[in-house]
Amino acid sequence: MVLQDLPDKKLSFNRTIKYGDLVIVYEKHDAMKAVMVSEDGVVQNRFGAFQHSDWTGKPFGSKVFGHKGGFVYLLAPTPELWTLVLSHRTQILYIADISFVIMYLEIVPGCLVLESGTGSGSLTTSLARAVAPTGHVFTFDFHEQRAASARISQFSHFSQFRHNQPVQSISVLPNRLFVVAN
Q1: Cβ–Cβ < 8 Å for 176, 112
Q2: H or E stretch including 130?
Q3: Residue 151 scores a pLDDT above 70
Q4: Does the annotation place 122 within a ligand binding site?
Q5: Where along this sequence does the record place binding of S-adenosyl-L-methionine (predicted)?
C-alpha cells in the first residue's frame, strides 16, 4: 500500500548550510559530533575554533579552516552518520541491522510505520528516510527525555515523537497503518 503524495512533506535538497541546520562536524574517522548551526555558535577542538557564521552559505561536505589553521569537514546528517554521533541513551541498532530490518519488513516510500521504543533514535532516522517523502513514522517512548532528544534529527519532519505508551496512543493514529516494527 503506497500513500498518495502529501504536498507538505518534501525532502530538502538544499545542499548549503544555513542557521538552524544540523551539521556533522568531522574531525577524523573516530571524532565526529552533531552541531546545530547558530549565529553566535563556535566549535572548539584541538584543531582550533570554528565560527558557525563562517559555515553559512557553504555546501555540505566543505572543508573549513579554523583560526589556528586546522580544519574540519561539515557533513550532511545522514542516518548512517547520525547513528555514529548520537548520544547513546540506550542500546542502539547499527546500519547492518537497520538495513536488515527495513528490507525484511519491506519498508518503502509511502509506508506508515509504528515504532515502539524510540530510544536514541538510530532506527527512527533510518525508518524516516526509508518511508520519505510520502510515508510517516510514529514513534513512542515512555521516557520523556529520550523522546525529546530524538526530535532533532534532519528527518524529524517525517516522524512524530510521542512520550507515552503506544497502546495508550493508538487511537490518535490514522487508519492507514501499514507496517509495525518493534
Answers
A1: yes
A2: helix 122-131
A3: no
A4: yes
A5: 120-123, 141
- The DSSP H or E segment spanning 145 is helix 144-150
pLDDT band, very low/low/confident/very high, at 5 (cuts 50, 70, 90): very low
121 is in an annotated binding site: yes
Q: Which residue has the higher pLDDT, 90 or 155?
A: 90
- 123 is annotated as contributing to ligand binding: yes
pLDDT digits (tens, 9 = 90+) for 25-51: 999 988 999 999 999 999 999 999 999
Mean pLDDT of 58-64: 96
Is-contact 140 116, C-beta < 8 A?
Answer: yes
Q: For the domain with range 22-76, which CATH number is right: 3.40.50.1860, 3.30.1330.40, 3.10.330.20, 3.20.20.140?
A: 3.10.330.20
HEC string of 62-118?
A: EEEECCCCCEEEEECCCHHHHHHHCCCCCCCCCHHHHHHHHHHCCCCCCCEEEEECC
